[in-house]
């Protein structure tokens, strides 16, 4: 890693343009909002865990931990988004399939829609960044 890099990923991300820092916040809050949907009412009474919300949270945490480790290893480069591709993609397509089959209703359906839009935009960007990295763009990301 380049010695002029900030000491951690949070410090590196803090150097980005304000619009991008807002995007990071939107992604984080969208993922963390899954906590409000972990429990759902059972038709027979009582509550049960919603596996989709647990999967979103698990993928978010796994990606964040791995991205921080990767930052320590390679620095603030386009490769970092590969952690979203690894952990978010399976959850994304699982939820997308269930959404298309109209398996969600009420507030969780609205949340799932928002999640799919936000995570989908991130995954497309991450895929493009991975291609650029593989093709040789190993320069540090923009730090303002």
Gist of the model:
The protein is mainly alpha-helical and 144 residues long.
Helix-strand string: HHEEHHH
Q: How many beta-strand elements?
A: 2
- DSSP helix fraction: 55-70%
Strand sequence of the main sheet, in spatial order? 1-2
User: Any idea what the radius of gyration is?
Assistant: 17 Å
Uncertain residue ranges: none
Report how far apart the termini are. Answer: 18 Å
Instruction: Describe the global form.
Output: elongated
Structural class: mainly alpha
Please, what is the average pLDDT? 94
Tally of DSSP helical segments: 5
**Beta-strand proportion:** under 5%
Summarize the main sheet.
Answer: 2 strands, antiparallel
Q: Which terms would index this structure?
A:
single chain; 144 residues; mainly alpha; two-stranded antiparallel sheet; 5 helices; elongated
């Amino acid at each position: 890693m380049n010695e002029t890099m900030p000491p951690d990923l949070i410090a590196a991300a803090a150097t980005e343009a304000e619009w991008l820092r807002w995007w990071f916040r939107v992604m984080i809050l969208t993922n963390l909002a899954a906590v409000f949907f972990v429990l759902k009412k059972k038709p027979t009474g009582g509550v049960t865990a919603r596996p989709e919300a647990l999967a979103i949270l698990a993928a978010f945490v796994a990606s964040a931990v791995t991205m921080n480790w990767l930052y320590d290893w390679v620095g603030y480069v386009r490769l970092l988004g590969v952690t979203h591709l690894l952990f978010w993609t399976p959850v994304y397509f699982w939820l997308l399939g269930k959404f298309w089959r109209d398996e969600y209703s009420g507030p969780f359906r609205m949340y799932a829609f928002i999640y799919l839009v936000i995570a989908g935009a991130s995954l497309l960007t991450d895929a493009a960044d991975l291609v650029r990295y593989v093709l040789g763009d190993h320069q540090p990301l923009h730090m303002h």
